[in-house]
Design goal:
Length: 479
């Protein structure tokens, strides 16, 4: 890929070369390969160094990315020799390394402001005394159980950084690492991992019990981009054309020339938006409680149903057991055939004062449309906002319609009868918004000190005529 502008990349070799297990092969071979890669493709100008002064702010700003070439050891800490070159920055080694204007802060700020990191193999063995560095890279080294041929699988064959592998898993002879905290798929977009079905899993020193052996990933760090791959121990890695193409793509991702999604794998796997968690597993009613005569899981969706032979004499609820909620955003899909339903929130279970099974605000919808997009508190403050209304409730509890969010009839036409519709409920410090199919249906500013502030979340089947209501894709984000 042609770079957007001239790129300069620092190839960083550990200053502890004499103590490095990779000094005689991996490091010099990778240095040669990376220099040649930059020069032959024109993707970047390579600059090689093992001088820690490169991490001063005035030097870092010259570079678009840094390749950490098997750079193990505590290299961010200046040696006595380094301190001679850094004496204008102070005489205290601790302050020069980790003080307010130290080398640690310089590197982290450079990445956060848009710099790129490319790290190979034992770079995760660098600066193990510095937790923020390992957090930035995404993992800490936890041994290498394998040094043999293993299976490697593409976690996302269609990801742009995996184009070199043409959608195919492969086998590779290499020293293979395992990783420990801060490694987590909740923070990293994993690209490659060990194929445990085609790899010898009887080797000693396997510490992970979850079979999650990631081998390459990307992540966003502030405005910066981080690419890591565990390959880089054996000499032949550095003349393998497929691996070199993969690494070139990783470098161009780090410099900002090759766009690629860094959404963490855990969020991609669940289809969740950032900050949301799923409240329904699509299989059973784990995490919910309700009458199994009314509430079931059918074809992967929550189903509440009454029939002529299976009626309810009072409103019936499926209550989420994850605890009381205060400020949150709830997103789900619903469909209804007959009757009336809703999403209860900030609700309390039955008391002597309130004989209803559940009492509190409800984001309503109904098959006939009368209650769709309406907020009410049955047996409490009754209707708070009709569809289309913008309402303010003052400190005395007086309700006033202060505006409109749309024509009630026009809004109702956006709802698809007996089909799946999106429903979003947002409530934050008294400000509540109902959104159906991407459109605001009503809005409330509630300043009443007696308003319900916390309580249960529940789904409703209304008493009366036979009905069916279904819910799926239930996601919650708490503020």
């Amino acid at each position: 890929m042609t770079p957007k502008k001239h790129r300069r990349v620092l190839i960083w070799n550990t200053p502890f070369m004499e103590k490095s297990p990779h000094k005689g092969y991996s490091i010099p071979q990778a240095e040669y390969a990376m220099k040649l890669l930059g020069e032959k493709t024109g993707a970047f100008e390579p600059v090689v160094s093992d001088d820690v002064v490169m991490y001063l702010p005035e030097n870092l700003k010259r570079f678009d990315a840094i390749i950490m070439n098997n750079s193990n050891g505590p290299w961010i800490r200046p040696t006595d020799e380094d301190m001679e070159k850094l004496k204008e920055y102070g005489t205290d080694i601790d302050a020069v390394e980790s003080g307010p204007d130290g080398l640690r802060r310089s590197l982290l700020e450079w990445v956060s402001n848009g710099g790129g990191i490319v790290a190979y193999h034992h770079a995760v063995g660098g600066n193990t005394h510095w937790p923020q560095f390992l957090e930035m890279l995404g993992a800490a080294y936890w041994g290498h159980p394998w040094h043999e041929e293993v299976g490697v699988k593409l976690d996302e064959p269609g990801h742009p950084l995996l184009a070199a592998f043409e959608g195919k898993n492969f086998r590779l002879t290499e020293e293979i690492f395992q990783f420990r905290d801060p490694y987590s798929r909740k923070k990293l977009r994993v690209l490659l991992s060990l194929d445990t079905e085609t790899t010898n899993m009887t080797v000693p020193w396997i510490h992970r019990k979850d079979n999650d052996f990631a081998l390459a990933w990307v992540r966003q760090y502030g405005k910066g981009r981080v690419f890591y791959c565990a390959f880089g121990h054996r000499s032949e890695i550095w003349w393998n054309p497929t691996i070199l193409r993969f690494y070139l793509d990783g470098i161009q991702f780090a410099t900002g020339d090759l766009p690629a999604d860094t959404t963490p794998s855990a969020e991609v796997a669940t289809g969740l938006e950032p900050g949301f968690r799923s409240l329904f597993n699509g299989k059973d009613l784990s995490g919910w409680k309700g009458n199994p005569r009314i509430w079931t899981v059918r074809d992967g969706v929550i189903t509440g149903q009454t029939t002529p032979d299976n009626r309810v004499s009072e409103n019936n609820f499926l209550i989420w057991t994850g605890g009381d909620l205060e400020d949150f955003e709830l997103r789900l899909k619903f469909r209804i055939e007959g009757g009336n339903s809703g999403i209860y929130f900030h609700s309390k279970e039955r008391t002597d004062m309130h004989p209803e099974a559940l009492v509190g605000p409800q984001a309503n919808f109904s098959a006939d449309g009368r209650w769709t997009g309406v907020v009410m508190e049955y047996t409490l403050r009754n209707i708070l906002a009709e569809r289309g209304q913008k309402v303010r409730i003052d400190k005395t509890g007086r309700k006033e319609v202060v505006g409109s969010v749309g024509d009630p009839t026009g809004l109702l036409k956006l709802v698809k009868p007996e089909q799946w519709n999106d429903y979003t409920v947002i409530t934050d410090k008294g400000h509540t918004v109902l959104n159906i199919n991407g459109v605001v249906f009503c809005e409330i500013e509630d300043n009443d000190p007696k308003r319900p502030r916390t309580g249960k979340l529940a789904l409703q089947v209304h008493q009366g005529l036979p009905m069916l209501v279904q819910f799926k894709d239930i996601r919650l984000r708490q503020f």
